[in-house]
Specification:
By secondary structure, this protein is of the alpha+beta class. It has five helices and five strands, in the order H-H-H-E-H-H-E-E-E-E. 35% of the residues lie in helices and 32% in strands.
Length: 161
């Protein structure tokens, strides 16, 4: 399952966009992982900034198609200042869910090389008498890579609670 997940993220999600940065097919394959994770990192930073003031632990990031997190992404995000946990920390077996989840959902590409990603961020922690999980934000980021192949956020549509 993990290989299927990584292949989806590496090959389907961002290879098209990377190809527009003038790289050969071999270079695209070699660089796809760090570039795709750069886009995920950018979205995670924006989401964490948007819910600042709500320190919720653990932090989990889920990506399509199966809602898990590749091991290599679990290694990449902490190197760039985001301490992320395995999904099992947010959804412990036999216990109530807890923590903050940034869930990357629907992905669309435009002919201009822009990438749209729908993202949902939620507080999964059960609080008796208050709520069982709470959606904090739901929206879509529009991103594009510049000439140096660095991701930039063009805009965000959606909202908070």
């Amino acid at each position: 399952m993990r290989n299927r997940h990584i292949c989806f993220v590496c090959e389907i999600l961002f290879v098209y966009v990377l190809g527009n940065c003038g790289r050969s097919a071999q270079a695209v394959q070699e660089k796809s992982q760090s570039a795709e994770y750069g886009a995920v990192l950018l979205v995670c930073r924006a989401e964490l900034h948007a819910v600042s003031g709500r320190v919720i632990s653990p932090l989990c990031v889920s990506v399509p198609p199966d809602g898990g997190t590749p091991e290599s992404l679990l290694s990449y995000l902490p190197l760039h200042g985001i301490a992320v946990d395995k999904m099992s920390a947010c959804y412990p077996r036999g216990e109530l869910s807890r923590g903050l989840e940034i869930r990357l959902r629907q992905l669309k590409r435009s002919p201009e090389g822009q990438l749209e990603m729908t993202v949902e961020t939620g507080d999964l922690t059960f609080r008796p008498g208050i709520h069982f999980a709470e959606a904090l934000r739901f929206g879509t980021y529009r991103r594009k890579q510049n000439e140096a192949c660095k991701w930039t956020i063009l805009n965000y549509t959606g909202g908070g609670r």
